[in-house]
Amino acid sequence: MSTGHAQDAAVMPVILSSTELSTHFEIETMIDTPAFLNSATDSQRKEYIELEGNPNLTMEMKQKALTNWALRCGNPVNGLYTQYMAEKQTLQEQEDQRMSVIVAQLSPEAQQADKHVRGITSNLNQTKKEMDTNVAKQLKKLPKKVYYELTFATQ
């Protein structure tokens, strides 16, 4: 029995029709999917996913292959991809600046360790797996104190 209070409405379940539910999930999926992929055809999306997911390509080869993919797709995909990559680059630069401020406050040993790790991660002539392996090897070499200082400070 309803008391007519606003709090009754807050606990009422929302029931969506199958059309509303489908639209809701489509919108969520579109928000998560970059605009350039929403503009691509199914076969173009498939090719992109195959390139992006190829573990045998170095990061440089993958970047070139994806840029060529976007060029082959033409506009609007190419324009949206270029915009997406520019935004991604800007975010990466902002993150690098944020991390530089944090690392500057660490011990000289942790700063040196960070320099080695950044050297590994900036090398695009390796696969993602190779990069992850090389970073893990570098971190494993560190004294525990430096490892914990670096990892906790950069989270």
From TrEMBL:
Q: Provide the SXP/RAL-2 family protein Ani s 5-like cation-binding domain boundaries.
A: 44-146
Fetch the InterPro entries from UniProt: ANIS5_cation-bd, SXP/RAL-2_related
The region annotated as signal peptide is none
Q: What is this protein called?
A: SXP/RAL-2 family protein Ani s 5-like cation-binding domain-containing protein
Give the taxonomic lineage as stored in the record.
Eukaryota, Metazoa, Ecdysozoa, Nematoda, Chromadorea
